[in-house]
């Protein structure tokens, strides 16, 4: 009940951004007493929100803290599906594990698990993902698309486009995508995306999309072996980036692209993905489980499969591989 009232309170401040809202107005809106409103306001202050209270005018949020709790993310969030239910944890083993459990509990589509720190984060091929406290965005999103099982990998490419666009919205940086789901800035990795399925033989139950974004790490935060290949938005931009605002931007972009995908299919997403891809037209080496292939990256198929043309002119379709450019 308390979280529902808090959500209504933050939705009101979002809808009336910058305005003063009276205690009576808020009490009537969310269905509680003015004393209860005051207690919620005090709770927000304890969480780090800066609020003004002026007699006969009401309350106004001046500044939100750089946290990634449900309250910070909800303030200013204008999506209708993604992020409407948020499960925040200060420290977790993995947001993916929690999202998998919630997926089986039939939580609403668009439910998000977000953490300030992951101690067991992982990427593709079960590689560890460095997820330090207070520095990045570590989250998993639950979608329930009515699409054929073989098309599920397209959502990885869709998410990569959404994250690239969101980073551009918040930082004016120009990230690129390395197939299928790594996002690079100036050749260094800033984001990883991991998509996993809960499905039966012929039906998707849910798609769990894990997103890890390096936001405010400094170069010294990385071990020496990662400093040449990993970066953060703050390193590249030269200034601090608000994590909650970045999360909101990801939700907004993802929701719009997801709606477009469900209505129009993969083609519009494919065209966007290729416009951000760093490897198209370049020589690459694809390291697959069955061996290495070297050639020119031509693009992706309508199903999201990478096409590689070798020196003999044979076109290979790459379903899963590590890609090395050059």
From TrEMBL:
UniProt keyword list: ATP-binding, Biotin, DNA-binding, Ligase, Nucleotide-binding, Repressor, Transcription, Transcription regulation
Family: Belongs to the biotin--protein ligase family.
Designated name of the protein: Bifunctional ligase/repressor BirA
Domain BPL/LPL catalytic, chain residue ranges per copy: 75-262
Role this protein plays: Acts both as a biotin--[acetyl-CoA-carboxylase] ligase and a repressor.
Cellular component annotations (GO), alphabetically ordered: cytoplasm
GO biological-process terms attached to the record: protein lipoylation; regulation of DNA-templated transcription
Root EC class: ligase
Binding site for biotin: 118, 122-124, 189
Pfam families the record matches: BPL_C, BPL_LplA_LipB, HTH_11
NCBIfam families on file: birA_ligase
GO molecular function: ATP binding; biotin--[biotin carboxyl-carrier protein] ligase activity; DNA binding; transferase activity
Catalytic activity entry: biotin + L-lysyl-[protein] + ATP = N(6)-biotinyl-L-lysyl-[protein] + AMP + diphosphate + H(+)
HAMAP family: Bifunct_BirA
Annotated region of DNA binding: 23-42
Catalytic activity, EC: 6.3.4.15
């Amino acid at each position: 009940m308390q979280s529902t009232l808090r959500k209504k309170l933050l939705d009101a401040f979002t809808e009336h951004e910058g305005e003063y809202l009276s205690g009576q107005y808020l009490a009537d809106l969310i269905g509680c007493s003015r004393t209860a409103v005051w207690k919620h306001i005090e709770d927000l202050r304890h969480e780090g929100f800066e609020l003004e209270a002026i007699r006969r005018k009401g309350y106004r949020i001046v500044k939100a803290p750089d946290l990634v709790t449900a309250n910070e993310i909800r303030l200013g969030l204008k999506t209708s599906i993604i992020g409407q239910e948020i499960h925040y944890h200060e420290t977790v083993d993995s947001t993916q594990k929690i999202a998998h459990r919630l997926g089986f509990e039939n939580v609403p589509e668009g439910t998000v698990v977000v953490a300030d720190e992951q101690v067991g984060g992982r990427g593709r091929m079960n590689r560890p993902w460095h997820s330090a406290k207070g520095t990045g965005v570590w989250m998993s999103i639950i979608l329930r698309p009515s699409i054929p099982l073989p098309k599920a990998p397209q959502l990885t490419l869709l998410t990569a486009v959404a994250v690239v666009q969101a980073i551009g919205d918040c930082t004016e940086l120009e990230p690129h995508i390395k197939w299928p789901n790594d996002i690079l800035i100036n050749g260094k990795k800033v984001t990883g995306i991991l998509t996993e399925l809960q499905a039966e033989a012929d039906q998707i139950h849910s798609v769990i999309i894990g997103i890890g974004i390096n936001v405010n790490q400094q170069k010294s935060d990385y071990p020496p072996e990662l400093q040449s290949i990993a970066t953060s938005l703050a390193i590249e931009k030269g200034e601090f980036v608000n994590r909650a605002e970045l999360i909101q931007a990801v939700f907004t972009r993802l929701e719009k692209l997801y709606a477009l995908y469900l209505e129009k299919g993969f083609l519009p997403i494919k065209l966007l993905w290729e416009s951000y891809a760093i490897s198209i037209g370049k020589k690459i080496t694809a390291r697959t489980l069955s061996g290495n292939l070297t050639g020119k990256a031509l693009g992706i198929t309508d199903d999201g499969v990478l096409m590689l043309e070798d020196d003999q002119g044979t076109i290979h379709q790459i379903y899963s591989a590590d890609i090395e450019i050059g």
